[in-house]
Amino acid sequence: MEIDKIICGDAYELIKSIPDKSIDCIITDPPYEYDEKTKWFQRGLSDETKKSCSGISEKLEKDSLKGGVRREIMDEWVRVLKKISIFVFCNKAQLLDYINYFVTERKCNWELLIWAKTHPVPLPNGAFVHDKEYCLNFWEKGVYHRIKDVNHGKTVYSIPLNQKDSKEFGHPTCKPLSMVRNFVEIGTQDGGVILDTFMGSGTTAVACVETNRHFVGFEKNQHWVDVANDRIKGITQKDRFPSKGVEQYFLF
Asked: Which residues pair with 44 in a beta bridge?
């Protein structure tokens, strides 16, 4: 098992090389599950807004970010963890599957953590606003949460749309670094090893570096591996390609 490295490849295969009970905590943002028939990214949008978001669905499809996850990866998460301790981002369609697996079957404790987006895109036509995302925390008996104070232990993170990171790194599903950094500190002690099976633009790796933790990361798209490695070094894609710019996609 190589630590402090992001490996390019299929997480479902790469995770098989990790020894049993060798990981302290998992923090990961797997593909969300979307039903194309619902037109989730267009429902209730004005024609002008639809035009500004053109390409989101294609981008998600290209980067395999919209098909959900298979049960086998959850089995592997449990196998490699010393004790079940996982923070997993998801959308509403995935809540019951994760809760059934970890709570009903694995008898874990759990908490629902919410990213409340303080400046969501307003939607007309009576549609609900896309103003939140979910992160489920599951842990088994014997796992200790290192919560320092009220702010550290909050369950609702009121943070604006993550446009800064999206602009600098081009990834369509960047999660707030401050939120992930809290999870790193809560879930592990200094020197702990965190696994992210869907590394994306490297948010978990950066959070680990900033908090003196180690990481193991998988990402199937070489482009995002390169972006994440640059990000760890403090290099944005605007720095890397100043004349080209960064293709930007913002989810609501």
From this structure: none
